[in-house]
Amino acid sequence: MSVSDDSGGLVGVYERQIGSPQTADEAYGYLVFVLGLLLGIVGMALFLPSESAGSTRELSIALGAAGFALLIAGPVIRLPLQRLATLAVYVGLVLCTAAIVWFTMVFPSEWQVATGHQGVISLYIVGIAVIAAGAVLVPLVTSTRSAAETTAAETRAEETEMRLEEERKAREAAETARDELAGELDAIRTSQAQFELFEDKAGQYRWRLRHRNGNIVADSGEGYTRKHNAQKGMQSVRRNALGAGTLHADELEDVSDEADLDDLPLLPAEAEDSQATFEVYEDNAGEYRWRLVHRNGNIVADSGEGYSSRHNAERAIDGVKANAGPGSYLQFDPASFEIYRDVAGEWRWRLVHRNGNILADGGQGYSRRRDARRATDSVQDRVTEADFDVYEDDAGEYRWRLRAENGNVVADSGEGYSSRSEAENAVERVRGHAPDADALDVGFAAFEVYEDSGGEWRWRLRHRNGNIIADGGQGYSERSSVHDAIEGVKRNAAGAPVEVE
């Protein structure tokens, strides 16, 4: 910050002639330096014609000594040093002034031409030394303390930064959890069906829940005399269906009186016990696997892959327990778009054939589910007439990609092929399956029902990141048998104990 002063002051002279000083000492130091230079020049000019014991010689020595001291003190005063250093400079100038006054008192009677006066010279040297100490020693001594203070301040700053980083990570974790919860709520609210309210031939109002594929998922079961009552029945189903339990009624007695319905339990008194056990074992290759074994000896599900440690296998079991129960069905007939959320919280899509192969994927993530859904609609609209780009990548594999009009890649093969013809065949498969493919929303995990190359129906539980975390291990001749197997996993996986062999 510049220092203002009256126009007649020393600082005002410095400001007019040189520039605005940052401090008053900057102006004072410069003026002291100039004064010392002038006194030194005058002293040397008077020294040359003077006699050894004359008054001119006395004046020249006094002016030269004063000029030398001021020449040293001026730059030191001008520097932005600590207050102690500046004070030392002023003390040194006082000592030099005292030496010069002493010199005028002893010259020429006690002044030796060859050796001078030891007291005067010693006092002057001490003054010069104090000025030098203020310029050099004081900053060096105090810099150690300043360095320690700086180190302590840096340590505090690092600790503060670490705490801020921890807070940022905690906030990001909370935001991720919030986004995942929002995704789950969004998945719950997103339906593949709609309610239809209609009037039957008898003039009564009924409702039915129709899936997008045309199947009737549920209906009112009875008619209502007023449309308002039918709407209330629909609202009741919406409120109560999501959290409703399941009552397995093996034998039902005939109920002749409606009042007898009060004697039937709406929900079981306790949750159904698991009829299966998870077994963790080490295979012949030294990898750890798990299987879900029913108490009748049948293997209900298995890991499908090996794990490097028992701990990883047990973690996989925890994933199955958490995801099998709420897992939804994905049926590919013969291919469908999967809308899912990756580990980074972005929405993505992929075109999956019923044999499990990924025919295409979007290649980029979206911040909102509807943006990913809109991307699949765009691909379906233009896939039949679009020009696919088949190219060879850096690894020597052939891939394909589909670009939008703006040049952005909206779809790609997701994997490489050994020859150009294989990549072109993959493009034709996408052209054939994409236009009629349904879009299926995936939560954290979903059951996939598919037909293998042998004509058998199978299931697998796929996480939204694409990993298969469980499969049935066996095929079924009928699709309905696969559904029964999945329901068995849903009933038994969550509460099944874990046994380690």
TrEMBL record:
The keyword Transmembrane helix applies. InterPro entries: CdpA_N, DUF1508, UPF0339_domain, YegP-like_sf. Residues 200-245, 283-324, 342-387, 393-439, 452-499 form the DUF1508 domain. Pfam families: CdpA_N, DUF1508. Keywords: Coiled coil, Membrane, Transmembrane, Transmembrane helix. The keyword Membrane applies. Residues 150-184 form a coiled coil. The chain crosses the membrane at residues 27-48, 60-81, 87-107, 119-141. Residues 10-147 form the Cell division protein A N-terminal domain. It comes from the Archaea. This is DUF1508 domain-containing protein. It comes from Halobacterium bonnevillei.
